[in-house]
């Protein structure tokens, strides 16, 4: 067995375990998971304080850390061999240690239960699945995840050592190390269990609450969508009003410009009309003056004619008188003769 290669793989596995998916997912939600609930950056604390979806996702991703590290050791040193099994548990144990004591986060990590599931998923997949289902049923009814984790690691370590043929000291020591690590990390949970103060995880209520919560979220999303639609409609209406106002303003400006032009034209027309009116007035005045002057001349002519007629009458009268006077004398003479 190449121990240098094993050492490199163990180191790589440790840094795989350093990846804290709980912190990464919580940061995306703008939450510091180390300040929520138990402060443990693990699947259970994520489930309780951030939500079931992210809790299950954290469980899956942490499981994949143990699975990938142990699978790497198994494939490098040969599947179906003792060396391959040693590489599997060496890399898996390193990933669990990296999860619990990450150098990246100042050796403050999770409790390694999910990463431990990944290791046993590679080592003993069918028993692991059976024990996992039993653990889930236990949590469903009794609501203690910590107890389920401790029972799981105990059963899987015992099963691995009982079924291991031939027995191998290195594998037994590494599986026992996993057992001790998980129990050591859960010591605070054990204390709370003994005092009756351990926080329960009611999956039933969570599921129903999640459904209601999802319904509320959907309702809120619909309300937000409606509000956004109303906002867009209002914005469109405002934009249309602005366009209409701008069009009206432009029309008003055009109308004003037309009015100005019309006023100028009217002024010009008025000037021409006034000029024509003044000319007409002058002509009328001239005519009136002419008319006034003509009657005086006519009157003078009439008076002159009258005078002439008077003079003519006087002349005719004088002739008549002259003619009449001798007749009177003759008449007198005839009377004298008689």
Task: Report what the structure shows.
With 338 residues, this protein is mostly helical. It folds into 2 domains: 3-201, no CATH class; 203-313. The protein has helices spanning 3-17, 21-28, 43-49, 52-77, 82-100, 113-123, 125-142, 145-163, 169-185, 187-195, 203-337. The longest helix is centred in the C-terminal third of the chain and has 135 residues, at 203-337. Mean pLDDT is 83; it is low at 325-338.
Which outline best applies?
rod-shaped
Please report the distance between the alpha carbons of the first and last residues. 216 Å
Fraction of residues in helix: over 70%
Order of helices and strands: HHHHHHHHHHH
The SS-based structural class is mainly alpha
Beta-strand residue percentage: under 5%
**Biggest sheet features:** none
Detail the poorly predicted runs.
Answer: 325-338
Q: Radius of gyration, rounded?
A: 64 Å
* Number of structural units classed as domains: 2
Number-wise, the strands total: 0
The number of distinct helices, counting runs of at least 4 residues, comes to 11
User: What's the average pLDDT?
Assistant: 83
SSE blueprint:
Elements: H1 3-17, H2 21-28, H3 43-49, H4 52-77, H5 82-100, H6 113-123, H7 125-142, H8 145-163, H9 169-185, H10 187-195, H11 203-337
Helix pairs in contact: 1-4, 1-5, 2-4, 3-4, 4-5, 4-6, 5-6, 5-9, 6-7, 6-8, 7-8, 8-9
Considering the chains and any ligands shown, give keywords for the structure.
338 residues, mainly alpha, 11 helices, 84% helix, 0% strand, rod-shaped, disordered C terminus
